[in-house]
Write a structure and sequence with these properties.
Shape: globular
Order of helices and strands: HEHEEHEHEEHHH
Radius of gyration: 17 Å
Number of helices: 7
Number of strands: 6
Helix content: 25-40%
Length: 213
């Protein structure tokens, strides 16, 4: 928007190149099959990755979780990282502890790939690497559709909300995900289809096509 609105650059001259998700998968890796209906037979797991938990929307996500719980759904938030010192203990939040991707990539992949929705309700975001990480492992994502997140909340595999959306609005959408098996399977399938498009290999190949030989 800055290039178009402020510098008056022709939109036709602008190309978006996504960076790669910082996730390493073996060639034979596939998303795990998790039995049971999320939110009904088992917990709907809302994934959250990020040290700056306030800016990245954890308080908002906690309100969404609370609203779904009021409606009778089983829901937990998986906070992938260390518990912030100023975040009170909450039974609905599963804290995994800090994960070093260099030595703990297998565990990191296991934790994000067994979430049902990866969430990034950030108030300010230059891009959104965690959303790409979830998509890389075939997990649909959700977040505020503004700033850099517009490039990582990919069509068909994402729940997109305006920055002024209320927790109840998000809960309504997630409730449809819980109740509608076809929607859930479709979004997971589309997320997995994007997996090879959100890698560093794809990023480099895109640049090669743009740059003169």
């Amino acid at each position: 928007p800055t290039l178009v609105d402020y510098y008056k650059v022709d939109p036709a001259k602008i190309t978006h190149v996504l960076p790669g998700a910082n996730v390493t998968l073996s060639p034979e890796w596939t998303p795990p099959m998790i039995p049971g209906r999320p939110g009904i037979d088992r917990d709907l797991v809302l994934g959250f990755v990020g040290k700056d938990w306030r800016r990245k929307g954890l308080p908002f996500l906690m309100e969404v979780q609370s609203e779904l719980a009021k409606r009778g759904h089983k829901v937990k938030i998986r906070l992938i990282g260390s518990r912030p010192s100023d975040l009170a203990a909450n039974a609905a939040i599963e804290v995994t502890g800090f994960i070093d991707k260099y030595s703990g990539m297998e565990r990191f992949v296991q934790l994000i790939s067994t979430c049902d929705i990866g969430c990034l309700f950030s108030t300010s975001e230059a891009l959104g690497i965690s959303t790409l990480e979830f998509l890389r492992t075939g997990v649909p994502v959700a977040g505020f559709y503004h700033q850099g997140l517009k490039d990582t909340l990919l069509e068909g595999a994402s729940f997109r909300f305006k920055p002024d959306a209320r927790p109840e609005e998000v809960a309504n959408a997630f409730e449809q995900f819980i109740r509608n098996d076809d929607l859930r399977h479709e979004m997971k399938g589309k997320a997995w289809n994007y997996s090879n498009e959100v890698t560093w290999v794809a990023c480099v190949n895109h640049f090669k096509k743009l740059l003169p030989s």
